[in-house]
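Dear colleagues,

For the upcoming journal club I promised to circulate an example of a predicted protein-ligand complex. I picked one with MV4 because it came up in last month's discussion. The inputs are reproduced below in full, followed by the predicted structure.
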Amino acid sequence: MFHKVLVANRGEIAVRVIRALREMGIRSVAVYSEADREALHVMLADEAICIGPAPATESYLNMEAILSAAVAIGAEAIHPGFGFLSENAKFAGLCETCGIKFIGPSAEIIEKAGNKSEARNTMKRAGVPVIPGTHEPVFDAKTALKAAKRIGFPVMIKASSGGGGRGMRVAESADGFEALFNAAQLESIKGFSDDSMYIEKYIQNPRHIEFQILADSFGNIVHLGERDCSIQRRHQKVLEESPCEAISPALRTRMGKMAVKAAKAVGYENAGTIEFLLDNGRKFYFMEMNTRIQVEHPITELVTGIDLIKEQIRIAAGEKLAFTQKDVVIRGHAIECRINAENPEKNFMPSPGRITDIHMPGGNGVRVDGHIYTDYQVPANYDSLLLKLCVYGKDRQEAIAKMRSALGELVIEGIDTNIDFEYDLVSHKAFETGKITTDFIESYFPEYVKK
Ligand code: MV4
């Protein structure tokens, strides 16, 4: 096992990883920007190194500064968390070159998964269902239009290197198709320096379902069930739950097998996520593969009892998975609400500033993963995630009641937060009855959607 691990992140995920390292008896090294001198991850780690000024490009995205820090302090491995360098193939490759274990898959796998149209083809070849669409990347509007007519409208135009909804357009008909294609392609060239596009049949109001997988370096792969992440706003998840109430045990088995097959097809190692779209006819399609630990990992931990961060570290250290698929039992129901420093009444504008008071909920089945404390100054330089409020109940109904109770108790003063907005979401009849699709917020909270 490692003796010392550097955590190349900040905020709640850095805190989460440092806690796991301490439990495992491994020394932790925090890195921090000048804006994060007072951050919790810096206080909790065994050692801490300043890696640069506040802008992420000069600190948390600064590969040289992070690798120099790791070498200087004698860290044997780097945990990248999520965001920042976590899905950067170049960084994973540089770690390898420096003789430092990157806690995640290899640079080759990250690269493969990052190209969405290539991943799509790999999955199709492996027998994983994909959305009907093009099999070769398209580079011009004329060829794309021909493909769209063959697929049948409505279609979705997507960038091969896309993500987070960038370089993506829905085309309802041939009218105006070429303009939409050109706009999506321009966004992709600007955002990803890539003009490669693909076309898919458009799935109306699907659910976003993702399967958690764990794969060790001996080719053993298991899935840990799914998370329903359909409730999103501008491609940012707002609330997630596990399991998905619309998935029967039989469908879970089928989708889980496909998730494992998808991971096998790329020779996956470490923790990963296979994203599917589930349509209203209960048909599912592979959409993307995420090669990092995800924000919403705690709900999977709550329903499986498996510590995903510890598993990531064990796998990276070369250990075999200590359990098989039949040992993984999904029990009860978990929900996560992301609590952000933002103002829902002002188009969710970020609300950095000093936290003057906090009251945390607690009790049976309540888990808080956060990084804030009284008098902490939330910097304006990074994302607005303050904490993740998670609840675990024997069933969905109990989990919902627990979440409402916990949100009602949670107090964060001094800055604006989305606590009340989350309370309204979990109190809505449509949420209670499980009418959850990707258009949930537009449909039931239109006043919060800026046109
Ligand atoms: C789609 C789709 C419908 N049909 N693809 C959104 C981000 C990127 N990962 C892919 N996305 C979508 N792809 C086809 N063929 C709908 C979405 C989509 C979506 C997916 C998951 C969660 C929220 C979403 C919000 C809008 C659109």
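Two points we might discuss: The two ends are 53 Å apart (CA to CA). The first helix runs from residue 11 to 23.

See you all on Thursday,
B. R.
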